[in-house]
Design goal:
Elements (H helix, E strand, L loop, with lengths): L5 E6 L2 H12 L2 E6 L2 E5 L8 E6 L12 E5 L2 H10 L3 E8 L2 E7 L5 E6 L1
Parallel strand pairs: 1-4, 5-8
Antiparallel strand pairs: 2-3, 3-4, 6-7, 7-8
Length: about 120
């Protein structure tokens, strides 16, 4: 049996972050209970479930895991994410690849990578 991957992200504002990631990833709300919200790809599409877990403590250090979002036009995609509340941090061009380091509205790292 192959294991399914669900990613869990600690957040402060469940609804705001669920809205952000639904728009950023093209996902849809899946369920909500207590301090959890989950979002998934639309029916018929594949991808991991993202579970948002409300925590009291704020983010204080670099993520040990982050999302890489692939795009054919990283500048356009970074601009779209900025319009949703993300912040652009730095562009990298290394080893023939390019990506833009960004943060979501709560400071969690996201990279927009050349697809």
């Amino acid at each position: 049996m192959t294991a399914q991957i669900h990613l869990v992200l600690d957040v402060s504002d469940l609804d705001r972050m669920a809205d952000f990631y639904c728009a950023a990833l093209g996902y849809q709300p899946y369920g909500a209970v207590a301090q959890y919200r989950s979002i998934t790809p639309p029916a018929g599409e594949s991808g991991p479930k993202l579970v948002l877990q409300r925590v009291d403590e704020p983010k204080t250090v670099k993520n040990r895991l982050h999302l890489d979002l692939k795009s054919d036009d990283i500048e356009q995609e970074a601009g779209r994410l900025e319009s949703l509340g993300a912040a652009r941090m730095q562009r990298f061009d290394e080893f023939g690849d390019a990506w833009i380091l960004m943060t979501d509205p709560e400071g969690n790292e996201i990279c927009v990578c050349q697809g």
